[in-house]
Amino acid sequence: MEAARELAASPVGSRPVPVGAGGGRPVPLTAANRPQPVAVQPGSTTIREQSPDEDEAGDEIVQEIAKKSPPWVVSLVVHLVLLVIAGLITWGVVRPKATIEAGFVEPEPEIWSEKLGEQNEIDTQLTTDKPKENQVISDSPLPPVPDPFAAAPDSPETEDAIHASSDVKAPDLGMALHGRQRGRAGDLLAAYGGNRLTEEAVLAALEWLARNQLKDGSWSLTGPYSDGALDENKLAATAMALLAFQGHGDTHIAPDQGAFKTDAEYQRAVRFSKVVANGWSAMMKTLEKDGSFRVECPSHERLYAQGQATIAICEIYAMTKDEKFKEPAQRVVDYAVTIQDKQGGGWRYEPGVDSDTSVSGWFMMGLQSARMGQLNVPQETLDKLTKFLDSVAMVEGRQYRYRLNGPTTDAMTAEGLLCRQYLGWQRNDPRMLGGIQFIAARPMEWAAGKRNAYYWYYATQVAHHMEGQYWRDWNNVMKQMLPTNQTRKGKEDGSWNPNGDVYGDTHGRLYVTCLSVYMLEVYYRHLPIYRKIF
Prior knowledge:
The protein has helices at residues 2-9, 52-68, 71-91, 114-119, 159-162, 185-191, 196-211, 234-247, 263-284, 302-320, 323-338, 357-372, 379-392, 410-422, 430-440, 453-466, 468-484, 504-520, 522-525; strands at residues 393-394, 399-400. It is mainly alpha-helical. The longest helix has 22 residues, at 263-284.
């Protein structure tokens, strides 16, 4: 009963869900047994590969028909087929895909909902030269990318190796922040499945955040917008808003006009840079000498806000290398190390006391952002976090619990798997493959009670890093569902209504809006960690 109360009180803890039946340990994925891509039609529930015999039989039938038909019939059929294809392209049924060298992006069927088609007609007034639907923002190709499976060693098969928890080397993410720099973002947006609609949704949300910034530069969880949170936490609100802007590539530094195609885009970037500068002015006034941020909020929300602020300050330094952020960012990282639960290995509500997966995930992201900025993060801290994840892992590491005693949940599984990716688990690790299959079986749904932006936020990142069919399937739903359900008129234009989200009623409109923005920035916010592009 106590565990249930704690879970309900957690601002981002996930509700218990039934645990699926566990199967045996999966066979490691190798070049010999790796499944090949298959064509999947939109709406299909069955995947079936056509055999070579069927291909040959089909060719023989076509050839026989061609031999017995008069030449004018063959010519007529060919011209009819060409006319149909031309018509489909004209009406947008067949769409050209972005081509990236070395098989960077596998072909995928585009899925467009009727609601999104209607939304295309809405004049958001965000740009003076809106690209045509599905237009690639930039035509410059990305460099060739090697297949990450080609050189990846087989995953460990022994029981001891499955449960190994230390001596892992995290992927090199030092250049990942380049994915957010203007000039690369357009390439990555197209390459990873984003489009004009997803980017317009991001821009509309940032405009909403800019309109709701308070005079002192901070943001509020409770208002001045409608459907605010039940409790105030300005530190969390400000950190989340800044992360939304930074995820789009906006910093406190004035942008270079030459990096923009139109004056309207440049002027918007100038406005956003001022918003970010004012936000950081407010945030830095709350930073204490010990590296903590001063905040008035319920006690169980304090370290959530600290973790979010840790991500934000480490990111702004990593993005800009502005020296005025270096020492404060390192101070914040040192504070995170100091208040880690020495026995449990994670973080929870009070500094140095107890651990849970929810709070620990935010600190893990903060420490990873610090590593991307080449700040000092002790390996011992990461090893302790790995041991904590081992303690809450279930089904051989494929699913995760909120705390030691409790069921696995969707949100905690996604959060735990993202931490594992950053801590060095390989893409073809059987535990990671089992985890992504768990997520793939629980796609985004907009039904009341099933909306869970917190789960979606972590699952989106896990799927993005995994790439392949897992990412395409997840993204095909996400890139339609979020823009379709965004508020696009009135005072709250650009935000998302929190009503119906598992935690939206408690944490409010800004919370749900920021998480939604992070998801739609995933195409260029961070590069997939198993790719070596730069």
